[in-house]
Design a protein that fits this description.
single chain, binds flavin-adenine dinucleotide, binds nicotinamide-adenine-dinucleotide, 7-stranded mixed β-sheet, FAD/NAD(P)-binding domain, Enolase-like, domain 1
Length: 452
């Protein structure tokens, strides 16, 4: 059978771009469909612009904190349009780079919405395209629960293009996006309330990390409201009137819902082609990222495993290894380091204390919290938290967790250590970098053992 392409990819995001360009550079004839900007969520409305906003919002503390170091600045002011538009220019630059990344190795870009027709055919606009293999890498989109007035809320996509910065905002949710945007808004001078229906933010993270981070967000000025949920939202005098399930009525300029993301599979025609999905629309794949239809593969957020850019990229590379070198994909989903770019940020890799307990492991837990040296003169009251989970039987470090400045940067190196099977003895025999916060990870002594 002669196909137009060896590989046709639907979605030019983190996973789709990597799979397309590497497959093309290795000799496949590759086409990719994308109906929005090249680069996907991460580049356009995710990791990259979000991190630029985090940097932008962190400057708000500089003038105040620099005083202790002898600096006096004129009264700082902030212009939202400058940050927003400079960010957009940078994203457009990246879009151009992604175009080159695809076109240089010979990938053909089909601008438009792709949908499946059969196991080897995709329709983009009016064009029917045939391919030996089809890779679905369409990512996910924000999920907003059903309730009266849910059409009045913003989702994270909207935050990157706001005409004006609101004076007050309610951020609903307790995951990555909620805590990151609460920090951004608070830093940019928006009166910020972070509301979560459960009794702790950041489900899935280590319990001490959850408690510590939550306290630090409150210390930074975010109004953290736990065990609270929205009943309805109405538009009143240009503001959002929010009625809570406990009967309270609150007013905000804007409400941001960050209550998870669902696979982007609604209009792909998956059922007609016989592709199995989960209840929330995620494509079910086997260890080779193959769907229930042999010629159709899926990677990244659309499979709803771990919604992180480096994971989508690793999955793409695992597929490339399989297609070109016959290596069975064996991507290791354990020990994925991750950072939450809240303020302060969180870095984490490996098992939490609770996960280690659930697995019945006999563990030692070392932990500390302290005021980072920088803040002895800055006057800021924020504190840093660090924690190590160690397996008593093998001395292996099973988990490392941090809340504090540079946590994302620091955890990357610890990710390598855990992957390499480092023991507490390895940590102890590593010379610290002095004076840093990071050196606390190699100087934990018996005095830091948590009483359990
Ligand atoms: C606000 C936010 C912040 C984030 N921050 C981080 C972070 O700091 N670090 C991190 O690791 N991850 C972060 N993520 C998650 C990360 O962006 C995703 O995990 C990653 O982008 C997933 O890659 P993907 O290839 O699966 O999909 P995506 O990058 O979402 O790409 C999918 C692409 O497919 C396109 N598409 C969809 N349907 C079709 C169709 N039918 N036809 C053609 N094209 C289609 C979309 O337009 C999109 O371009 C963040 C996400 C959000 C929303
Ligand atoms: N720094 C990063 O790496 C980064 C940043 C942003 C997003 N991401 C990825 O994107 C994913 C999606 O982010 P997210 O924050 O939207 O999702 P999330 O799954 O991290 O958090 C969703 C939150 O919404 C809550 N929720 C769900 N339904 C609700 C409801 N009906 N009412 C109230 N609350 C409800 C959940 O309990 C949870 O706390 C993340 O899981 C992460 O994998 C990563």
């Amino acid at each position: 059978m002669n196909y137009q392409y060896d590989l046709f990819v639907i979605g030019a995001g983190s996973g789709g771009v990597r799979a397309s360009r590497v497959a093309a550079s290795k000799g496949f004839k590759v086409g990719v469909a994308e109906f929005q900007a090249l680069g996907g969520t991460c580049v356009n409305i995710g990791c990259v612009p979000k991190k630029l906003f985090v940097y932008g919002s962190e400057y708000s503390h500089v003038a105040e904190q620099a005083k202790g170091y002898g600096w006096e600045f004129a009264k700082p002011s902030f212009d939202w349009a400058t940050l927003r538009d400079n960010k957009s220019k940078e994203i457009e630059r990246l879009n151009g780079i992604y175009k080159n990344l695809l076109e240089n190795p010979g990938v053909t870009i089909h601008q438009g919405y792709g949908e499946l027709v059969d196991a080897h055919t995709v329709k983009v606009g009016h064009e029917l395209i045939s391919a030996e293999r089809i890779l679905i890498a369409v990512g996910a989109k924000p999920f907003v629960p059903e309730f009266p007035g849910n059409d009045l809320v913003l989702v994270s996509d909207d935050m990157f293009y706001l005409e004006e910065l609101p004076k007050s905002i309610l951020v609903v949710g307790g995951g990555y996006i909620a805590v990151e945007f609460a920090g951004i808004c608070q830093g940019l001078g928006v009166e910020t309330t972070l509301m979560y229906r459960g009794d702790k933010l950041l489900r899935g993270f280590d319990e001490d990390v959850r408690d510590f981070a939550s306290n630090e967000y409150a210390r930074a000025g975010v109004n953290v409201e736990l065990n609270s949920d929205v009943e309805k939202i109405e538009s009143v005098d240009g503001q959002k009137q929010v009625t809570l399930k406990d009967g309270r009525v609150l007013m905000f300029d804007e409400v941001l819902y960050a209550t998870g993301r669902v696979p982007n599979t609604g209009a792909l025609n998956l059922q007609q082609v016989g592709i199995e999905t989960t209840k929330n629309g995620a494509i079910v794949v086997n260890d080779r990222y193959q769907s229930s239809v042999e010629s159709v593969y899926a990677i990244g957020d659309v499979t709803d495993r771990v919604q992180l850019t480096p994971v989508a990229i690793k999955e793409a590379m695992a597929l490339i290894g399989y297609w070109f070198d016959g290596v069975e994909p064996n991507f290791d989903y354990d020990n994925i380091p991750t950072a939450v770019f809240s303020q302060p940020p969180i870095g984490t890799v490996g098992l939490s204390e609770q996960e280690a307990d659930q697995r019945g492991l006999d563990i030692d837990v070392y932990q500390t919290d302290f005021r980072a040296m920088k803040h002895t003169l800055s006057g800021a009251q924020e504190r840093t938290f660090m924690k190590l989970i160690v397996d008593r039987a093998t001395d292996r470090v099973l988990g490392a967790h941090m809340v504090g400045d540079y946590a994302g940067e620091i955890i990357q190196g610890l990710g390598i250590a855990l992957k390499a099977g480092a023991t507490k003895a390895h940590f102890d025999s590593t010379v610290g970098v002095h004076p840093t916060s990071a050196e606390e990870f190699v100087t934990f002594s018996a005095g830091s053992l948590k009483k359990r």
